[in-house]
Amino acid sequence: MAADHERPSQHGATRGPIARGVRKTLKFIGYALGAVVAVYLVLALRVATLKPVMSFDSMAAYRELLPTSDDPAWPVYLEGLAWTRPNQPLGETEFAFTDDSQRREFLADLDRLIGDEPDPESTDAESSPRPDVRAVLAARETQLATLRRAASMPVLGREPNTSPDEASPEERAYYGTPDPTEDAATEAAADTPTPDMLLEVLLPQLAELRLAARLLAGEARVAEARGDLALASEDFLAMFGIARHAEESRTLIGQLVAAAIRTIACREIVAMLERESGEWPATDLERLAAAVASVPETSLRIDMVTERLMFEDVVQRTYSDDGSGDGLFIPWAFAQFTPLVDVTAGANDDGFEPIALAVGPLAYLAPSRRETLEQYQRWLDALELDGARPWWDQRRSLAEIEREIMPDRSIGLFSGGNLLLALLLPAVSRANDNLAAQRFELDAAAIAIALARFRDVHSAWPDSLDQLVPELLADVPRDPETALPYRYELRADGPLAWSVGPDGFDDGASPFRRVRIGAAEPDTEAMLLRTPPHGDRTPSLRTGILLFHEREGRWPESLEELSPELRAGVPRRMTEHATYRLVDGIPVLERAPTEHDPLLERVPKGEAAPGDRILVDWGLGTFADQPPATTAS
């Protein structure tokens, strides 16, 4: 009976300590989760009520940066380019572009004429007649003269906008865009309660200006063929004017387009001087020299004023503003910048966004408005300051700054990173390298022109570049790679000037460094550099010398200073035919090709294939060792 009395009843069974502990723990967890949910909802409701505050009109601020004119060049450019649009007759030929593919084919032919990279979208289809590019350019003298007139005008004067509906009548006629109706314009104005976003600004002028430059470069080739070097000079001078107009947009992409235009002009000038140096009128050479020298230093380094405005505009649209310059990140506002989220679907009439309840509290984990702006401005200040230094003193620092920035490009928004910086910070160092690399092209053209002018006066080439100063050059241009004067040598076939290149080695006497991509001319014999199977993984003397410099902080005086470790694996054939010396502190490593060199093959006239790496002597004023960003076509 006693045992039965102690047995717990089915309705009031007692629990052991473990069960009671589990029960208390679950109750605590429940209360904690409830508190977390409550706090989450409170924060979500607070973020859901936040709205961006538009503190300035970015488009208005951008317009203030641009010059204005009562006589802008932009409509004149459109007049001179109208014939390149589809369904426009091509001068005396009966051919007309019936679609964009035919236009691309013509432009690809134009690029091949001037040695520029062909349009990647072009095709070689022969389904319809294709005009001869030279004949078309010759037939369009009037329109090309209009382009030269536009290039000579002081101000481009294109009014920026963010919608084709806001385009000028000249632009709508050029692109074939119908005029917006009065009702549509009224509706658009009503649907745009906030100022236009600067990030959406349209810059169609950049593509058209580059096209104008390519057409004039092609006309210069046609003019040269008929001996009209005066017209060729006018075309090159106009190209410098077009580059100036491209920079007028005050955008980084505008600067890069201007750099590309100047590169085409400088390379064409140098190439034409190589072919026609003794025939060019002295007055035209003088004008070309002035045009090359007139390019300001500001065109060789980044200008981020518009990019700063764009970023500040995005920040004001994605952050709240507490009145003291700070605020919280608003996820639903940021969603307008990504096509992955459509926050307008399901939004209430009062503007409340349901997505705010789901992700709103995460805004407290993101960097604040002040932190984001200060970080962006600090990085851009550092990059601009370093970009203003000479080329030889900036690249290592720029790389270090971007190494600091790059982690934030891969870290998530709510893991300590900054999504706005990751998405909107441009690749500044790469753009800066492309801009600064213009210095090689401008120096090449300046030296080539000065050499031609010197020979016109003295009937001989100079023995050194110093002889060009001060009559033809204010000073001997300095190699951006070394801060020392460019290398120069007067050879039996003419003068040769060159840069030591990005590796710091002077390889001017080595044919390995005089490489042009493309096919040999039909009447020339080519020395081809054949790539060995699977690539050349053989250790080289160059690698050993660079490692020595990295370890010792100086260049070796001779190859004998290299330790066995640094020379390990280098084939004897590499050292037997190599000579090394220091010239003005620059390492010079020369290697003459041997008769049985496995990498070299002499190719008979006209048998080199397109894409072969052809070893050629570039001759007058051309640099034998260009940096990767400016490798000759």
Shape: flat
How large a portion of the residues is in β-strands, by DSSP E?
5-15%
Give me the oligomer status. single chain
Strand tally: 8
Q: Estimate the mean pLDDT confidence.
A: 74
Number of helices: 24
Structural class: mainly alpha
Major β-sheet strand ordering: 3-8-4-7
- CA-atom Rg in angstroms: 33 Å
Your description of this structure?
With 633 residues, the chain is mainly α. It contains 24 helices and 8 strands. The protein has helices spanning 2-6, 17-48, 58-65, 74-81, 100-114, 133-139, 141-151, 169-175, 182-190, 204-225, 229-247, 252-276, 282-293, 305-318, 331-334, 355-359, 369-387, 395-410, 419-424, 428-436, 438-458, 541-552, 564-567, 572-576; strands at 487-491, 494-498, 515-517, 526-529, 578-583, 586-591, 600-603, 613-615. A 4-stranded antiparallel beta sheet has the order 3-8-4-7, with no helix packed on it. A two-stranded antiparallel ribbon has the order 1-2. The longest helix is centred in the N-terminal third of the chain and has 32 residues, at 17-48. It is flat. The termini are far apart.
How are the SSEs ordered, and which strands pair?
Elements: H1 2-6, H2 17-48, H3 58-65, H4 74-81, H5 100-114, H6 133-139, H7 141-151, H8 169-175, H9 182-190, H10 204-225, H11 229-247, H12 252-276, H13 282-293, H14 305-318, H15 331-334, H16 355-359, H17 369-387, H18 395-410, H19 419-424, H20 428-436, H21 438-458, E1 487-491, E2 494-498, E3 515-517, E4 526-529, H22 541-552, H23 564-567, H24 572-576, E5 578-583, E6 586-591, E7 600-603, E8 613-615
Antiparallel strand pairs: 1-2, 3-8, 4-7, 4-8, 5-6
Helix pairs in contact: 4-7, 4-10, 5-10, 6-10, 7-11, 10-11, 10-12, 11-12, 11-13, 12-21, 13-21, 14-17, 17-18
